[in-house]
Structure formats: C-alpha cells, structure tokens
C-alpha cells in the first residue's frame, strides 16, 4: 500500500506540518502523564480508524513501559479493571471529544466533571488539545491512506 499524498514532499504541507508537529512535541512535554497521553492517543486513533497512529502510539507506549494487557484493553476500557479512575476519565473525555458529531452536545458536563476530579487546569488543557491534535492527525493520515506497520518507537523524536 502506498499513501495517496506525501505531505512532506509538498512545500505548503511540509511547512504547516513542521509547526503542527512542534505542537505535538509541546504536548509531550506537558504535565499530563505520559501514560495517559499514549492511552488517549491510541483510543482516539482506534475510533478514527487511523492505522498509522495506532501503530505509532502502541509502539511508543510499549517503549515507555506500558503493558500489552492494558494496550489490548484500551478499546474496551469501560469493562477493563486495569485503568486508574483518572485514566478512565481521560479516555471518556477523549471518546466524547472525538465523537462530537455522534454525541450532538459534545463533551457532557458529567464527563467533564469526572475529568476535573483527576486533572488540574494545565493537565485538562493539555488533554483537550491532545484530543483535538490526534483527531487532526488521524484525519490527515486516513484521508491520505498512510500505510502502517513500519513505525519504530522514537522515530520522530
């Protein structure tokens, strides 16, 4: 499989993505726990069917010490007992933030309140920006049909 577009070969896209990827780096350095970031990135990517991001974030999570049990259960996190209450709140917010069209009201007040119990304002802001960032990256990759499977942990660091 070959991607429909090579974003880095196009001068306009390459310039835009340079800044966009810088935003991703800033998110990585935020006070939102790294494990939570990878779980959220993985779940958003699963919902959007972004194979290249699923590949990337599952491998980055493993490299950071995440267990295969937790990674395998992200897709069914509600029934899984391996996630903390804070992680569950982040995953729930990520799902509602990703499924905005499906949940016409966006992120519900109850979901927001559960997240507020576990994260301070700086972490919440990073979480919201991460969900938005991942949705954008997923769409770029899905539209261009970026192939997955060849990512190596740390490749973009």
Automatic annotation (TrEMBL):
<dbReference type="InterPro" id="IPR003779">
    <property type="entry name" value="CMD-like"/>
</dbReference>
<protein>
    <submittedName>
        <fullName>Carboxymuconolactone decarboxylase family protein</fullName>
    </submittedName>
</protein>
<dbReference type="InterPro" id="IPR004675">
    <property type="entry name" value="AhpD_core"/>
</dbReference>
<dbReference type="InterPro" id="IPR029032">
    <property type="entry name" value="AhpD-like"/>
</dbReference>
<feature type="domain" description="Carboxymuconolactone decarboxylase-like">
    <location>
        <begin position="17"/>
        <end position="96"/>
    </location>
</feature>
<dbReference type="Pfam" id="PF02627">
    <property type="entry name" value="CMD"/>
</dbReference>
<dbReference type="GO" id="GO:0051920">
    <property type="term" value="F:peroxiredoxin activity"/>
</dbReference>
